[in-house]
Amino acid sequence: MLALVAGFSLARMVEEPASPPAGRPAAPGDGGANPAAHDHGAGGVPSVSTQVGGLAVSAGGYTLVPESRSLSAGARTRWRFHIEGPDRRPATDFAIVHEKPLHLFVAGRDMSGYQHLHPTMAADGTWSVDLLLPRAGVWRAFADFAAVDPAGTQVATTLAVDLTVPGDYRPRALPAVARESIVDGLTVTLEGTPQVGATRPLLFRVFRDGSPVTDLTRYLGSYGHLVVLRDGDLGYVHAHAEEQVGPTPRAGGAVKFWLAAPTPGRFRLFFDFQVGGQVRTAEFTVVAR
pTM higher than 0.85, yes or no? Predict the structure, then answer.
């Protein structure tokens, strides 16, 4: 069986573009912003990469440039940034990857407060999104995108920057390893454990009052999305669910991902899924060996 895992990349909360379309469709077979992370092999199963990403503000000739790196705790702010291209001008041509031209993920340095956002881009290349950071501390913002260069080549890149919220910072301890996560009255279970040097399946099942949920719907083209952050440096992976063959989530089956851990250590998993038109996130702590 061909395996899927994501190379480390990032971003989301939905807003429709107020300006002309900010991206073009990705090339056939381009399953995500990082080809190593999301390219699909035969049978629609993405290929595998254990490359850690989202650790630099500049890579591949592109730089993430925020208007501000300091925000106020608990205040909703219109946060703006642009992606500077190799010509040192704001890039404006982006491929549409998983229904969006850019995905933004935000989490505290203690891996709490995860957010999955979708900024919109103005004609001059300025991206903006309503951002609410509830607590003081240092937060990490990851931009996951595929820019299109003048030759028409898609340049998949994941950039990240730290944002500071002044105040009394009290980091939260990483939650203990667990196989269940409760979110909005739904119970999500996790089967499988990431392993270094081997690709292993991770299966998520959603239950309501002890019975399998049968009305999962696709979110951004998939039954689920999985973001993985590494404890210590917030190395990032973004995976998408394997296309269902046989039992589907709608019939109570599992949402399956393939993952190969890049290193030993603790990781935080964020599983995004949609039920009844509402996107929810189940969170897990795992240890890879």
Answer: no
